[in-house]
Amino acid sequence: MIIIRLKCVVLVVRKNKPDWHLQKTHYPYAKGRTFINPYSAFQFYQQYGFPLVIKPNVGGFSRGAYFPIENKAQLAKASIGVKKWWSNSIIEEYLLGKNYRVVMTKFGVMSVLRRYPPFVIGDGLQTIDHLIDIENQLRKQKQLAPITRPIPKNNAIKKHLKQQKMHLSTVPKSNQKVYLHHKISLKLGSSVEVIDKRN
Q1: More confident residue, 19 or 142
Q2: Which residues pair with 87 in a beta bridge?
Q3: Which candidate in 7, 29, 164, 177 could, as Cys together with 22 as Cys, close a disulfide (CB 3.0–4.6 Å)?
Q4: Residue 73 contacts by C-beta under 8 Å, 6 or more apart in sequence?
Q5: pLDDT of residue 20
Q6: Same domain membership, residue 148 and residue 77
């Protein structure tokens, strides 16, 4: 049992390990490789093109991760910046898809959650700033912490809105879904949906 648990820890902590196991089982996955020299990241780009992801080989919560990388300038910045976190880094294809978190115990699967980047839905009247306040108040009333956290109005959120030519003062159209960031992270106020729960 201890050996199995240690193997699971290695698979989770060392991010390049799961890819190797997925390749053995023929499941689809983002192709990638580890690198130390940033020039190796450019060689990977020449083979697979954009968009890409660069991240440390250890860690979590999207710390030190750069994505989506869509041009050479972003690639150069990411391949050097990631070294602040860990000398051995990962570059891989950036694939869009659904994000799930499976909670397991020694008894098996306990729950399956689908996770989303933080977002608000417009009503044609309220600003994004106010829509965030409404969403945060709803989360507080439902006592969703620590499963979810309040959506912040920090520089990361403002920067992502600016990339979409929007600001906190923008009034989205009715039923318009506005993503406040591309990362799925608790500190950015990501949302979750319970897909399956075993009692």
Answers
A1: 142
A2: none
A3: 29
A4: none
A5: 62
A6: no
